[in-house]
Amino acid sequence: MSRSANLIKQREFRTLLFLILLFVVVGFINSDYLSWQNIDKSLKSSLLFIVLAVGMTFVLLTGNLDISVGGTLGISAAVCGTILRDGGNIFLAVIAAILIGACIGLINGFGVIKLKISSFIMTLAILSITRVVQVIYTDGKWVENIPAHVKELSNLDIFGINLLSFIVIVGVIFVQLYLSKSSKGRYYTAIGDNADGAISLGIPVNRYIAYSFVISGVCASLAGLIFVSQIGFVSTNAGAGIELTVIASCVLGGVSLIGGIGTVVGAALGAIILTSINSALVYMKVPAFWNDTISGSLLIMIVVIDALLAFNASKKAKKVRLNARVLQKEA
To answer: Residues with Cβ < 8 Å from 74, sequence gap 6 or more?
Structure first.
């Protein structure tokens, strides 16, 4: 019973139950929604958001925010798209994506750490700048005529499993193990939970905050590469508004906006849920103009849930500290 109770208390488990419930309920309305083809399609559609959510989780754990992911995705997709269109190989595109994301992440980290600019303001400014850079780079035109073999990468299966989905899922598992099992991985949570306490313990806070922005930037750039392989072209507004969906995915999966709480597994599940909701509305034949209303309502629910989560966590932490003091006095 205690194991079951502990499992239910896990935010990730409750998020998974909500995802299963979503498929079951919509499946009763339209049985096609429970087909393997739709489940596979939902997972493929969410891969881009999962990669973005993994990077965003690092930033959120430290108590910061990265609004620039949409712009990073856009400029990375444009650069990678032109490289592939002009005959470059996929490895060159991957290297270019990593460098672009790392550079943007370093700029964000420098502004937040050295210039003491709010992460919201800094990354919002970088979002605007990257949008302009993308338009200048593409001369205001779409990047089209991507080679067919690039677009086939997103549909490549090995032993009946989509290769890209397998890589992303394995990546999420490894990142989760790093954040939860390694001492350095737990630095991110410690910084978001209590930065002053982390400094007193000798944790290089500024360095790991910079790392978090670099990781977020690299993930956004790799998501841009996924965007190219799945969509097959890059418009001038690629990735516009995606940052809100990514943040909502993280919070839905249990990552706190004030830092110190959350996992990449939860963020990934949140991304799958939000993607599945969009497809569910189609299968339920809900008019398209309701999408924004439903998404907005969901965002409000997410913020409220996050506030309650943070309050409960703070309350439990105070109770633990109080019990420790009482035991210390009795001893």
So the answer is: 130, 131, 134, 224, 234, 237, 238, 239, 240
For 86, list phi and psi in degrees, rounded to 5.
-90, 10
Among 167, 280, 213, 283, residue whose Cα is nearest residue 68: 213
Three-class secondary structure of residue 123 per DSSP: helix
Looking at residue 50, the DSSP 8-state letter turns out to be H
Strand intervals (E) in the chain: 157-158, 161-162
Q: What average pLDDT score do residues 171-179 get?
A: 95
Does the reported pTM lie above 0.85?
yes
**Minimal CA–CA distance to 93: which of 240, 216, 227?**
227
Number of H helices, E strands in the chain: 14, 2
Single-letter code of the amino acid located at 234:
V
Element (H, E) at 141: none
CA dihedral 132, 77, 111, 47 (to 10 degrees): 130
pLDDT tens sequence across 19-47: 888 888 888 888 888 888 888 888 888 99
The tokens for 31 are: 């049985």
How sure is the predictor about 314, in pLDDT bands with cuts at 50, 70 and 90?
low
Give the angle subtended at the CA of 184 by the CAs of 181 and 185, to the nearest 5°.
50
Q: What is the per-residue pLDDT across 217-266, written as a single tens digit (0 to 9) for each?
A: 999 999 999 999 988 889 888 888 899 889 988 988 889 888 888 899 99
Tokens at residue 41, please? 């399609």
Residue owning tokens 């896990």: 10
Question: What backbone phi and psi angles, to 5 degrees, belong to 157?
Answer: -115, 145
**pLDDT at position 21:** 86
Task: List Cβ<8 Å contacts ≥24 apart for 261-264.
Answer: 261/61, 261/189, 261/192, 261/193, 261/309, 261/310, 261/313, 262/57, 262/60, 262/61, 262/189, 263/11, 263/12, 263/57, 263/176, 263/179, 263/180, 264/53, 264/54, 264/57, 264/172, 264/175, 264/176, 264/179
What is the signed CA dihedral for 171, 173, 174, 176, rounded to 10 degrees?
A: 120
